[in-house]
Every structure is written in C-alpha cells, then in structure tokens.
Amino acid sequence: MWLADNWKEYEVLDTSNGEKLENWADYTLIRPDPQVIWNTKKENPLWNKPDGHYHRSNKGGGEWEFFGLPAQWSINYTLPIGKTLTFNLKPFNFKHTGLFPEQACNWDWFSKLIYEETSKGKEVNVLNLFAYTGGATLAAAAAGANVTHVDASKGMVAWAKENSVSSGLSDKPIRWLVDDCSKFVEREIRRGHKYDAIIMDPPSYGRGPKGETWKLEESLHPFIKLCMQILSDDPLFFLINSYTTGLSPSVLTYMLKTELYPVIKNKKAKSPADLNVSASEIGLPVKDNNLILPCGASGRYER
C-alpha cells in the first residue's frame, strides 16, 4: 500500500462506525467514510468536541453541524523536492473540504520524476484531467512542469486558481480550463497535441453539462484508450486514481499495460507485461491505533 504519511498539518486520529476523526491544521472534523464498516470504541476525547461534524442522511446527502469552524482556513504540505503547497479549505456539500489528503503519496511520487527532468533543463508537459481543486496541478507546477488543468466545474477551477496563488505558483505555466474532459481530449487529438504525462482522477459517477453520464466501470477503459492518442511516444508517467471499490489495483495494472504497450516506443518491452506499471491501494495512517485507513487505489506507469 502507498501511504500519504508525510503530512505535518493533517492526520486521521481514529475511525469508527462509518466515520473518521481528523485533524486539519487547527481544526478537528468528523466526516463519513464508506470504508469504515467497523464499530470500535471511540476513546479519543475529540470525538465529543469536534469543530465540524458532517451528518449523513438516511435519505441521501447530509449536512454540516459547526462548532466554531471558520468559513475558510488553509493547510500546508511540503513535497520531497522542498516545495511547500498551501491549500484553501472550506466545508461544502457532500462532506468535502476541497482536498483529498491521501493523494499526497502520488504528489510525492510524480513531483520527484518531474523535478529530475526539469532540473536538467528538459520541458515536461502534464495534463491533469478531472483536476478538482488542483492538488496534483500544483505539485506538478512546483516541480517545474507546464500543466494543463481541466475540470468541468467552474467553481472547482476557480478554487484551484486560489490555491495556486496561496502556494506562490500563480506565475507558473498553468492553463486553467473549464471543460468536459472527454471532449477536451477529443479536441486535443484533432489538434495533434501531445503530453509527456497524464494524471486522471475521475469520479465514480457523474453527469456532464449536457446530461452525459459517466460511470467509472463503463467509461474508464474507453477514456484511457482515448488519452493514449495524446500521449508522447516516450512519456514520463501516467497516473490513474480510483475511489470505486469494485476496481482493484490489478484491474488498473491490466488496463494500463494493455493500452500503453502499443503507444510507447520501448525496445526493451517485448510484451505488455514488461512495462514499468504498478498499482496499489493508497491509504492514510490512523494515529490512535497505528493502522491504515484505505482510501482507494492508484495505477502508475513510470518511464
């Protein structure tokens, strides 16, 4: 399992009965987590005095209850390349705060790959699809990449821009695009544009601006095939994140190897099995019991 265990200002304190108790810088939150199917004793006293508690409704959705949580606050994360990112957080619908802290394990991984290239004066063009509030975009930009950030939500792209300003990255070469990811990739194919790295963090389920349906199990493989047409012949990396429990790491490995093999001009690879692809669950350490909270899976290709 790949762990996001380098946080200084975030930690999972405990988990029980469908919820997780978290510290976000100076504030403690209780939020639902579908992976927490166990009901263990809640011994941490912070269970009884959070700053915010998201209550799930039996009818779907839910609502926040606040106990002194501000409308917005920030949190910092330092990459292994020495660059510090600052994220603006706020509680909004469906339990989110604007950041998935488990993704830090991927930021660490690809920021080092990018920095190794850009520190030699090489250009790295990265495409971040379903880019949300820009965690991966900022990590790539901080490492020296040219980044194209694509998300269908105007609000999320605006939030990502705010994070770039807070992180001191507003002058970096980042293209901010509000667009349907599939339609954007189709246009890039027609334009003949290529990328050295692709990051995708697709939702399990969603609808496009014109009612298009996205269901991960049905849509992911065709979308990966589509993206191969804008990948350079010798890409630096390819990253897929999945929060859908039905997609195991081995499924991500299989799709990446089969679709990358015809694209990558690697003379050492005699078959898809030879490609440098790995996949694993990703997780967050739980402070009170030293166990790991699973948070989905990622599949990675590395040159």
Give the topology.
Blueprint: E1 2-3, E2 10-16, E3 19-24, E4 27-32, E5 52-56, E6 62-66, E7 73-78, E8 84-89, H1 104-118, E9 125-129, H2 135-142, E10 146-151, H3 154-166, E11 174-178, H4 181-191, E12 197-200, E13 205-207, E14 213-215, H5 216-227, E15 237-242, H6 249-260, E16 277-286, E17 291-302
Parallel strand pairs: 1-16, 4-5, 9-10, 9-12, 10-11, 12-15
Antiparallel strand pairs: 2-3, 3-4, 5-6, 7-8, 13-14, 15-17, 16-17
Helix pairs in contact: 1-2
What is this entry, summarized?
The protein is α/β, with parallel strands linked by helices. The protein is 23% helix and 32% strand.
Write up what this structure looks like.
By secondary structure, the protein is α/β, with parallel strands linked by helices. Helix content is 23%, strand content 32%. It has 6 helices and 17 strands. The chain has helices at residues 104-118, 135-142, 154-166, 181-191, 216-227, 249-260, and strands spanning 2-3, 10-16, 19-24, 27-32, 52-56, 62-66, 73-78, 84-89, 125-129, 146-151, 174-178, 197-200, 205-207, 213-215, 237-242, 277-286, 291-302. Strands 1-16-17-15-12-9-10-11 form an 8-stranded mixed sheet, sandwiched between helices. Strand 5 and strand 6 (62-66) form a beta hairpin. Helix 1 packs parallel to helix 2. The chain is globular, with a radius of gyration of 19 Å. The mean pLDDT is 93.
